[in-house]
Amino acid sequence: MSKNYFDWHGICWGGVRRAFTLVELLVVIAIIGVLIALLLPAVQAAREAAARMNCQSNMKNVALAFQNYHDVHQSFPLGCKKDTSGTWALYVLPFIEQQPLYASYNFKRAYNDNTKDTGFDKGNTDLLAKLRIPVYSCPTDGDKQSSYGNYMHHNLAVCMGNAAVYMPNDPGTNQAATQGRGWALYGDITALQGAMFWGGCRLESGGVWSEGYKWVPLAEISDGLSNTVILSETVQGERAASAHNQGAVDLRGLIWWGEGAQFVAYRSPNTLTPDNVQFTKPAYPGGGTAHFARHPISPTLANNITIMSARSFHPGGVNAALGDGSVRFFSDTINIDVWHAYASAYGGESKSL
Amino acid sequence: MKRFSLLLLLFAVAVCGCTNSNPQGRLKIEGEVSLGGQPVKSGSIEFEPAGSQTEKTQSGGSITDGKYSIPAEKGLVAGEYRVRISIMEEVAGSKKEGADPMSAGVQYKDLVPPEFGSSTKQKVTVEKGKANKFDFKM
What we know:
The complex is a heterodimer of chains A (353) and B (138). Helix content of chain A is 23%, strand content 11%. By secondary structure, chain A is α+β, with helices and mostly antiparallel strands. Chain A has one domain. Classes of the chains: A alpha+beta (353), B mainly beta (138).
């Protein structure tokens, strides 16, 4: 039999040309389909792994910026100053090679003040908060439409301890906030107190924002830099659209706003317990989108208790940067005591993974 | 090429095969919550470790139309837990119409009695091999 019996269009037996039958084609297509179906999850997993690495790298850069900030100022940056007068995200701009943006901010104004100043102290304060800063973002979460004005949401948040962020309304409870520490969420969990090392925002009785913040030098992190979480992830707020949350805004990830710039480790990472965030209405899974099903949200608890947990769209956990500048992945299933200990800067715990 | 695709196939199978998302043996938690005889339309519930179990897990979820359900991989390991419920309701008339969300002044109050909320006295015991269904009538 010579080679001439075979040609491009089919297989020849005894010189009779024969095409593929429909069944043969279907079988081949089915096999290819099965192979692709098997491969697809792997491809998706590889894509997510790459995005997570990118996220880790961003976080590492910011953690190093914190260290560089410390070299210059002998202290870590403030978590936030009042609630709209600058957050860590602003203070470390010069250390992520964004000096011009830093210079464009008018410190006399709130981040969302769109007054156009002229003359000596002119600024683009409002503009800065509308820019995407890639190093503050996580590629897994993408680039979401803002849920509040045109302000850009990002994915990094500083750790404000393992209790709750609390903006007291009554003078009797102001003291702990003055010290810039974590608040015991409820009267009977005093063990969680004394963990917050980031200076905080404080609302005095009478509605005046006081500068209750505190600068934290490395020396104060007595639990050890490698045992203390300084940064973790949050999710970019999504514009709420369901029946449960008409007119509400999801301000998570609005890092120019004091509360949006932080998270607390009171609850497990990616918990299904709704975050307690200001200016929102309940957006529960029953009426929410996929975003809210995974990261539910609820109004603040009594007395403006704000609890925003570490959250991400990575499967199974969140990235977090430690005081020594390293970044590691914390599982959703982490022992809650260990998570609390990591979020405490000077609690004296010695738990580790 | 054939060997390469075979490798890819093996890789895919391996990736699909190694998702044990519940190594601690967490358990599904569910139940019903009512306030004054009415099912709670929307609220939240959370469980904090209160026993001597070594593996400390914390979990919670949303209450929708009187029910809550926490899937096993986000659930709790066996042990004793303190339960807190919160039902935040907008204070009528606190919102300034048409205001920017930041200055809308919306206030919420918690409808839950203190013994179920801020100073809770509710404890439950999660057990293995049992339907962990906890109902709360407030």
